[in-house]
Design brief:
- It is a single chain.
- The chain has one domain.
- The protein is built from 13 helices and no strands.
């Protein structure tokens, strides 16, 4: 059985449970990218994006090159254009905006705004064929918004909130728009390209993203960046090699697996795990316990995901259960 056939087989058996676990794993690994800008604050967002995705591209190149001719035979020009735009919106541009948001407004505020992604993706996905009606997902969306508002209230009403906090909010919104574009496009591309495994798709995205990172190096040099001492560069390389392997490689594999196991209306909900783990990492970094309103936000977001899972599992059972003969339905 080929890898693609194996994926389809798993999808038919484990759709909702396995997809949810993959989404949780991806969120735990992706949450680390919110912490990385704090670990190397003396580097600009452009430098952070170049470092992370150059490492990602090199790793992808080493893994993919032995099977290059076989893999690319299944791709056409349209697929390469899709890879370019997904790499831009989901990696290069998104991480520049995310890093700027973290350095301006902090981890909590940034993760708050990204936490609204499920609302945007679910609304878009509700228009797909055979998707769950939006009204059925309303309780889950309401809980999601309530949790995000709790986190935002804590961040924006804090005594230390400044103009930088407001700018962080704007950068976060821009990152949210970029990431939403990627999530929707990636899910639909994986559904269309049944001949490409999720692992190979992840490597191809990494390869294209690495090429974009190389193109950004002259831009960074032109604007006067890349001027740091050897100790800073050493720390930079360590942080983003780790991020490339943990988040970009393994995190993306889990997310792509989840994208094929779950419908688009549920895919958006899974990003809430990234929000939760990003906040947990942020609290650990700041050496503090969450405030009561942040605990409330955690609870609301978890309830949002569980409610969404419950609705989809019920819908999944109704679709796959045999029809009841009319003479057994009663009056």
């Amino acid at each position: 059985m080929s890898s693609v056939e194996t994926e389809k087989h798993l999808q038919n058996i484990y759709n909702i449970p396995l997809g949810t676990l993959c989404g949780m794993g991806a969120g735990a690994l992706w949450g680390l990218v919110f912490l990385a800008p704090e670990l190397v604050r003396d580097f600009t967002p452009l430098e952070l994006a170049i470092g992370r995705f150059l490492a990602y591209g090199i790793i992808a190149f080493v893994i993919i090159i032995p099977r290059w001719s076989i893999l690319t035979s299944n791709l056409n020009k349209q697929d390469w254009r899709v890879l370019f735009w997904l790499s831009l919106f989901g990696n290069t541009l998104y991480y520049v905006l995310l890093s700027k948001a973290v350095q301006s407004g902090g981890i909590a505020l940034t993760s708050l705004v990204i936490g609204f992604l499920p609302v945007a993706v679910t609304i878009i996905g509700s228009r797909d064929k055979e998707a769950i009606p939006l009204i059925a997902l309303f309780p889950s969306l309401l809980l999601c918004c309530a949790g995000a508002v709790c986190i935002g209230w804590q961040a924006l009403k804090a005594p230390e909130a400044t103009h930088q906090t407001s700018m962080g909010l704007l950068w976060s919104i821009a990152a949210l728009l970029s990431w939403t574009t990627y999530v929707v496009g990636n899910s639909r591309s994986l559904a269309r390209l049944s001949s490409v495994s999720i692992h190979d798709w992840n490597l191809l995205v990494g390869l294209v993203t690495g090429a974009q990172a190389i193109c950004l190096i002259p831009v960074a040099l032109f604007v006067g960046h890349l001027q740091h001492d050897l100790i800073s560069w050493g720390r930079f390389v360590e942080v983003f090699t780790a991020v490339a392997i943990i988040a970009s490689l393994f995190g993306n594999v889990l997310w792509n697996r989840m994208s094929r196991l779950l419908p688009l209306t549920m895919t958006g909900q899974m990003i809430l795990f990234e929000t939760l783990f990003a906040l947990i990492y942020g609290f650990l970094w700041e050496h503090r316990w969450p405030h009561p309103i942040e605990v409330a936000a955690f609870s609301l977001i978890v309830c949002s995901v569980m409610t969404c899972v419950s609705v989809h599992r019920k819908h999944h059972r109704e679709i796959n259960s045999p029809a009841i003969p009319s003479y057994k339905r009663g009056v």
